[in-house]
Write a structure and sequence with these properties.
The chain is of the alpha/beta class and 164 residues long. Helix content is 56%, strand content 14%.
Length: 164
Amino acid sequence: MKRRKFPLIFIVEDDPFYAAAIQKELEKVKLNNIQIYDNGQDAIYNMYQIPEIVLLDYSLGDSDGITVLDQIKKLYPNIQVIFLSAQEKLEVAIKSLKHGAFDYIEKDSNGLSNMIHSVKKLYQLNCLIVENRKYQFFTKFSVPIFMAMFVLVVYLTMLITSAL
């Protein structure tokens, strides 16, 4: 799969004003490949597009964010989810992280800037993971080829020297 120049980001938020604020903050840092969903089921239906990051509200009208997170992780375990919530309870944050969320951001006065920081961290982590996979692929196939070539050179050298 070819890596996109700009990561696809899903915003799953039932408050249209907050969703627009999130989108505006992402666009400020040149993250423009964004799709907004106002409910969890529409977001799940469109997961085939394989977003790199899902910004997920904890309290959605049609379901709670944990249920949506569980469905995302069941279908696409490598998609990363950042929870955004007005819930200040520590139990809610712990529960979301235990279910596989990358981060939990409170919707407070620092919420949008914390969200941008978390998205940047996650994007950098994803880039490192991709580079690591490329390196592992390269070493998996290049070392055996190198060894075979080395053995061939040694064998040919022995044949040439014994012929002389």
